[in-house]
């Protein structure tokens, strides 16, 4: 039964007492508080009956005290304490002092330690938490009354012929009881404060837990938490829907190894030991792994990430796996690539034909004005063809390279010689620092385009009077996954416009052009460097850029001499 009754206590201390007994009904708590005294008195009755039976016959007050304790115990169990303010149940410990007095006075000569019976109501009054000061005072007064009762003239158990010092014998007992009452009261209040703090912490934790649960369940991202033994701890609604998509036909549930999981191509099955949750349970962390789940029209693409958890000793304690549905994004990328490839192909065929016929026409003896018009048309057509070719290269799979033995030094030298005239016309100084020979396993067409793109950009974005330097050298133990092997390093440095840090971060994005270049109306598509990066990565290499605004830029390309597989 709850303590939330219409009756209220007149103070905060009384309210604290109500909270102190709030875990159970008051009737049960009062009965439990009375039972230690009752059991102790029952033990005393047995001891008296065995060792000093005359006490029961010679001292009727002993049985009266025992009967009083029994009556109070019954009252504690049957009275409707929940209907009264908690302070009312103090009547039980206060009447316990009255019942204990004749028991102690009658049996004290036969059994030692009888005065300790008063400790039970003392603890009860101090422990209740209701009006602590009053409770301690009543505990002291009650224990003093019990202790001195046999020594007071006129009491039924008063012994004649007591010496004067006999009255001082029990003087310490009430003060010991007072100390016990104070200690119990202090301990109780400390426990109450701890209970309040713990209650507030639990309430805060429950609030945060409800908030987290709401966020997790309303998230469109699938979330799976697995403990160190591989048991699911949490799976939100989004992940349950995804899990259902991967179940074989006719199945209502299944483990990960039974799900229809495929690589990003949607066709190649993923082996059981390479599946996302299995690898996560091995303590592996990963980000953005693309997989496909389900088959036919219901197949979805997911970006999976996993982060392991560890306890204070660093032992693996589970993992969190996040599944983000990227089906729409994958469809959009594939649609874009198909569109660019188809449009680029459809444009390139007629443009090639136009440029061919313009070449033939310009070989004829033409009027100067007509030749000027045709030359302008040819230049713009070639520019448009270059744009279409860049678009086609972007849409193509740049990760495929045709590797063969290539003299990189000759390839770079040929590219530098090809742009030398263009650099001279732009008023630029072009210098090359190249070895006589450097053999490598590479795709000569794509690596040639890498060098051409870097040199063309350097010339295009360097004002007259500037300089461009291209160098090639062999490095040992640079780059790569393990930082070993022989590498070729190509460096193209210019004194051009340069870039800010924010511009460098977007430099390899398709169609991106810096603000200065756009304002200067310098022609270009913003695809060259994106294509260049794809070709370099296809060779197992990397491309780096260092640039400072109005100072210049340095592009560094490193590829393994032994080919992409190395």
From TrEMBL:
Top EC group: transferase
Classification via CDD domains: HATPase (cd00075), HisKA (cd00082)
InterPro entries the record matches: HATPase_C_sf, HATPase_dom, His_kinase_dom, HisK_dim/P_dom, HisK_dim/P_sf, PAS-assoc_C, PAS-like_dom_sf, PAS_4
Location of the protein in the cell: Cell membrane
Reaction it catalyzes: ATP + protein L-histidine = ADP + protein N-phospho-L-histidine
Domain of life: Bacteria
Short name of one Pfam family: HisKA
Domain Histidine kinase: residue ranges: 342-563
Annotated EC: 2.7.13.3
Gene Ontology MF annotations: kinase activity
Gene3D superfamilies named among the record's database cross-references: 1.10.287.130, Histidine kinase-like ATPase, C-terminal domain, PAS domain
Keyword annotations: Kinase, Membrane, Phosphoprotein, Transferase, Transmembrane, Transmembrane helix, Two-component regulatory system
UniProt domain PAC: residue ranges: 284-338
Listed transmembrane segments: 30-50, 62-81, 87-107, 119-151, 171-188
The protein, known as: histidine kinase
Organism, as annotated: Citricoccus nitrophenolicus
